[in-house]
């Protein structure tokens, strides 16, 4: 029986320096692609798939998200050290708002709704969503062993095998979240760590299953090249 998930956490604290000058005035999640801004589309897709409780972790230009959240019945929390810390710190800073299993995703993603449907339909409690290879020029590669996350890296040579590509959407249990909290307390470099590296460290002893959707339409928008690809190649393939 699949775990009922009704919560999603969207990490949206980053400064988006590679998308300047756009991000001088708006956070990355407010970039328009097609008829919707990234955050608008993401929230709509989540709600259409039964996600009732959406929490946004903010930082850079947080007032944009706070206004959007008020208008759409969402929650936000501000990570006060966003300018000098990584996404792992943002997640843990807002973790007291999370009361059950949840989806974790990033604000700068453009993705087909099959990504959310697929994760919600998996029986595993902790799942990393992966795709086939996108050639997007900023990939995080995933090493898979026995259908489990074994390791991930931007450098292929650091992996024993290169089996898939990280999308940036996860299903996470409270049990894994508690282990992430413990790691955050114990690791010397936790404040500067990315959450996906933290999960990969824990996956040595904690099973994180892999859901790979080979032809998933998705992209992350970190720079001008990504934005152009999103508009040209990804947005036309979305539902």
Plain-language structure description:
With 239 residues, the protein is an alpha/beta fold. The protein has one domain: Spore Coat Polysaccharide Biosynthesis Protein SpsA, Chain A (Alpha-Beta Complex), CATH 3.90.550. Helix content is 29%, strand content 26%. It contains 7 helices and 13 strands. The strands form 3 sheets. Strands 1, 4, 5, 6, 8, 9, 10, 11 and 12 form a 9-stranded mixed beta sheet that branches. Strands 2-3 form a two-stranded antiparallel sheet. A hairpin with a 2-residue loop joins strand 9 and strand 10. The two termini are 27 Å apart.
Q: Tell me about the biggest sheet?
A: 9 strands, mixed
Class from helix and strand fractions: alpha/beta
Q: Runs with pLDDT <50, length 5+?
A: none
Q: Summarize the amount of helix as a percent range.
A: 25-40%
Q: How many separate structural domains?
A: 1
The quaternary structure here is single chain
The number of distinct helices, counting runs of at least 4 residues, comes to: 7
Return the average pLDDT rounded to an integer: 93
Number of strands: 13
Report the CATH superfamily. Spore Coat Polysaccharide Biosynthesis Protein SpsA, Chain A
Distance between the termini: 27 Å
CATH architecture, please? Alpha-Beta Complex
């Amino acid at each position: 029986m699949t775990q009922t998930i009704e919560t999603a956490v969207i990490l949206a604290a980053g400064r988006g320096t590679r998308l300047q000058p756009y991000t001088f005035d708006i956070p990355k999640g407010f970039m328009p692609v097609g008829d919707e801004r990234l955050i608008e589309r993401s929230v709509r897709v989540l709600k259409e798939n039964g996600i009732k409780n959406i929490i946004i972790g903010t930082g850079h230009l947080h007032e944009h998200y706070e206004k959007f959240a008020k208008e759409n019945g969402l929650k936000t929390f501000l990570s006060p050290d966003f300018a000098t810390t990584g996404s792992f710190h943002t997640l843990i800073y807002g973790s007291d708002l999370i009361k059950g299993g949840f989806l974790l995703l990033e604000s700068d993603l453009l993705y087909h709704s099959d990504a959310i449907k697929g994760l919600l339909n998996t029986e595993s409690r902790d799942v990393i969503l992966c795709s086939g290879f996108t050639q997007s020029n900023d990939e995080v590669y995933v090493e898979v062993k026995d259908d489990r996350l074994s390791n991930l890296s931007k450098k292929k040579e650091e992996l024993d095998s290169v089996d898939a590509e990280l999308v940036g959407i996860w299903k996470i249990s409270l049990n894994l979240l508690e282990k992430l909290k413990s790691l955050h307390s114990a690791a010397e470099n936790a404040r500067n760590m990315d959450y996906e590296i933290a999960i990969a460290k824990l996956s040595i002893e904690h099973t994180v299953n892999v859901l790979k959707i080979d032809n998933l339409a998705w992209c992350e928008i970190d720079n001008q090249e990504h934005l152009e690809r999103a508009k040209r190649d990804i947005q036309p393939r979305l539902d």
